[in-house]
Amino acid sequence: MINFKVVDIQLDGVDAVAVELLDQPYAGTTLVYGKISIEEVNDQAIMHFNVDSFADGKSVIITDDLKKLAGDVLIQILEEQVKNETAIYHGGT
């Protein structure tokens, strides 16, 4: 289980919701997710997402490790929302 907290932030003057990582080596890094999509390929779900990261108010380069961790956090959030029946889906058919 990944330790994080959901935080309210201001991004370019707009209120947004983000995820702050609590464990090293990324403790204090904030993840801001953009568009998220899931597609089925050969009976497997493939997730695509955009994410920006910040620490101390400055942009952080997204390494492969951080991108994987961001995906794992997103999956953890989605699984929890589905389990608690709080997931909200917009668009699609």
Give a brief rundown of this model.
This protein has 93 residues and is an alpha+beta fold.
Walkthrough of the structure:
The chain is an alpha+beta fold and 93 residues long. It has one domain. The chain is 22% helix and 45% strand. The chain has a 5-stranded antiparallel sheet with strand order 1-2-3-4-5, covered by helices on one side. A hairpin with a 2-residue loop joins β1 (4-11) and β2 (14-21). The longest helix is centred in the last third of the chain and has 20 residues, at 64-83.
Furnish the topology, listing elements before pairings.
Elements: E1 4-11, E2 14-21, E3 30-41, E4 44-55, E5 58-59, H1 64-83
Antiparallel strand pairs: 1-2, 2-3, 3-4, 4-5
Please name the defining characteristics of this protein.
93 residues; 5-stranded antiparallel beta sheet; 1 helix; 5 strands
User: Measured on Cα atoms, how large is the radius of gyration?
Assistant: 14 Å
Work out the number of β strands.
Answer: 5
Helix and strand content put the structural class at: alpha+beta
Estimate the strand proportion: over 45%
Number of helices: 1
Average of the residue pLDDT scores = 89
Distance between the termini: 32 Å
**Biggest beta sheet summary:** 5 strands, antiparallel
Low-confidence stretches: none
The helix/strand order is: EEEEEH
Helix content: 10-25%
Number of domain modules? 1
What general outline do the C-alpha atoms trace? globular
Widest sheet: strand order? 1-2-3-4-5
